[in-house]
Amino acid sequence: DIQMTQSPSSLAASVGDRVTITCRASQSISGYLNWYQQKPGKAPKLLIYAASRLQSGVPSTFSGSGSGTDFTLTISSLQAEDFATYYCQQSFNTPYTFGQGTKVEIK
Amino acid sequence: QVQLVESGGGLVKPGGPLRLSCAASGFTFSDYYMTWIRQAPGAGLEWVSYISGSGSTMAYADSVKGRFTISRDNAKNSLYLQMNSLRAEDTAVYYCARMTIYYFYMDVWGKGTTVTVSS
């Protein structure tokens, strides 16, 4: 199975900050990397697919980059509604695996 | 609008069965792969299973293989997950999600249904 490792596991930031979350795969997954946002008690929401493609309706403050084994999710200017947990997920092969999550909290 | 609504969750004893359903609306159901994802209390996301649009191809996580069966009824726009021999570690919120065959990402999610396995 492909292991997905996110860092950090949590971070505290202020509104307006630039936030970067990294995700590393245990083997190359080409560009088969997706990012989701989850708020407490809610279903996950797709933000970025295919490593860098912004899902329709997602603010342009979100961006993704990377290929192979190393990927990044960047929030260019953190908004109040962005405080949530973020997961990366590889869709290169089954079993599709998720990172452990990064919780973004208010500083 | 595009919507997925899960149902069928509840409290079940270890070893027992449970069948989850997911009703889809607002899109051509048979055009899409569908998948189940679960989240144990306080834990991260775990992919469980997927099924192709025609229902001819399925895949399962090792943790549920041989115990869970995914199926679909395209005439009813419905997805199912038959869960047998349930264990305490199957306790989770179960989400159904629509999956594209382009990069296999999950672009539409239901709100989830809770399964609790306990005596």
Distance between the termini of chain B: 40 Å
Encode the helix/strand succession of chain B as letters. Answer: EEEEEEEEEEE
**Overall number of strands of chain A:** 11
Return the average pLDDT of chain B rounded to an integer: 98
Task: Please tally the helical runs of chain A, counting DSSP H or I stretches of 4 or more residues.
Answer: 0
Shape of chain A: globular
Backbone structural class of chain A: mainly beta
**What is the CA-based Rg of chain B, rounded?**
13 Å
Largest β sheet strand count, sense and barrel closure of chain B: 7 strands, mixed
Termini distance of chain A?
36 Å
Task: Summarize the helix and strand pattern of chain A as letters.
Answer: EEEEEEEEEEE
Mean pLDDT of chain A: 97
Question: What are the defining features of this structure?
Answer:
heterodimer; A: 107 residues; mainly beta; 7-stranded mixed β-sheet; 4-stranded antiparallel β-sheet; 0% helix; globular; B: 119 residues; 11 strands
Would you kindly provide a written description of the structure presented here, covering whatever features stand out?
- The complex is a heterodimer of chains A (107) and B (119).
- By secondary structure, chain A is mainly beta.
- Chain A has strands spanning 4-7, 10-13, 19-25, 33-38, 45-49, 53-54, 62-67, 70-75, 85-90, 97-98, 102-106.
- Chain A is 0% helix and 50% strand.
- In chain A, strands 2, 4, 5, 6, 9, 10 and 11 form a seven-stranded mixed beta sheet that branches. In chain A, strands 1-3-8-7 form a four-stranded antiparallel beta sheet, with no helix packed on it.
- Chain A is globular.
- Chain A starts with a strand and ends with a strand.
- The mean pLDDT of chain A is 97.
- In chain B, a hairpin with a 4-residue loop joins strand 7 and strand 8 (78-83).
- In chain B, strands 2, 4, 5, 6, 9, 10 and 11 form a seven-stranded mixed beta sheet that branches. Chain B has a four-stranded antiparallel beta sheet with strand order 1-3-8-7, with no helix packed on it.
- Chain B is 0% helix and 52% strand.
- Chain B is globular.
- The mean pLDDT of chain B is 98.
- Chain A binds chain B through residues 31-32, 34, 36, 38, 42-46, 49-50, 55, 87, 89, 91, 94-101, and chain B through 35, 37, 44-47, 50, 59, 61-62, 95, 100, 102-107, 109-112.
